[in-house]
């Protein structure tokens, strides 16, 4: 690592080891937060890539708070070093099925931010050069898997707070791939702060095919409509959330 590189690396490894092996939760959390501060402040961010495997090892932690902070760390590092973030994607998918609903909720939030950023990066690449780099195509394939799992969470029975976040993700997905008129574009920017515009991918990249993406968005609308039709089986707040979107 730059600027006291060896010292920073060894300090971070020591902190990550404490998160993994120490028996005291307070020590684990303190160590993870310190490691997070170091990892997220290193510039250039690519210098921390060699530590990614040690971060991934922490996914098996029995502590809910550790897993929650870990997914936040993976989001931050993944966004800073996107071309290497594929190593975190299996953890995102695994945590969508975590036993702790708070971990699932954080994963949806972090994953949604990551989803929008990956989409924007792909669209920018295609808009600027007419092609998308291979690593980014592979990363998008992970995002598609992520979206499919969240759709299942939205449609299946489960904790209400988690379902609400999953529904919000589907709503954002629909907005992203709906007609790019000014009202919709403004809505997307207000919701996620992203700059994606579906018109950027007009012309037909195999992955960024606007017709296929719009078709998938329409299917998501169908899922939300199906939820309304079965409103009697849903909690009041879930029904209100879906109705408000329409």
TrEMBL record:
Coiled-coil ranges (or none):
none
Task: Cite the Pfam families for this sequence.
Answer: SYMPK_PTA1_N
Question: Could you tell me which residue ranges the Symplekin/Pta1 N-terminal domain spans?
Answer: 102-244
InterPro entries given for it? ARM-like, ARM-type_fold, Symplekin/Pta1_N
Q: Which species is this UniProt entry from? A: Papaver nudicaule (Iceland poppy)
- Superkingdom field: Eukaryota
Q: What is this protein called?
A: Symplekin/Pta1 N-terminal domain-containing protein
Q: Which PANTHER family match?
A: PHOSPHATIDYLINOSITOL 3-AND 4-KINASE FAMILY PROTEIN-RELATED
